[in-house]
Amino acid sequence: MTDRTPDPDCLFCRIVAGEIPSEQVHADDLVVAIRDIQPKAPTHVLFVSREHIASAAELSDADGPLLGRLYAAAADFARAAGIAENGYRLVTNIGTWGGQTVPHLHIHLLGGRAMTWPPG
Ligand code: AMP
Ligand code: ZN
Description:
Blueprint lengths: L10 H6 L7 E4 L3 E5 L7 E7 L14 H18 L7 E3 L3 H4 L7 E6 L9
Antiparallel strand pairs: 1-2, 2-3, 3-5, 4-5
Bound molecules: adenosine monophosphate (AMP) and zinc ion.
The site of zinc ion has 6 residues, from helix 1.
């Protein structure tokens, strides 16, 4: 397992630590959720691990509780936001070709409009 201590050069580590302001919509012992600064849908929220994990490619069986929390927090938020009935998308980008720009684990919740498939 790679080092998961906070990285002072990581944007999301700094947001989780409160060093950089964000519009936080959820926080628990494992996950912090913030509104995306450049929303790609009417609802665009990022569910971010508190630990510095470079991407979902770094996860192992031992991360089951974290994965469950990330998805459960997103589903709870979607229900509370009133977008669950129509459906929404949860996605995590990995690496350059996956479109990842912040190398710290996060799941995008995109909703409030119909999504297209396949993504670009
Ligand atoms: P990804 O490209 O999948 O790594 O997702 C990173 C996301 O973080 C992008 O959708 C960005 O718009 C978003 N983002 C970048 N900087 C901030 C910030 N300071 N606060 C909130 N979201 C951000
Ligand atoms: Zn980080």
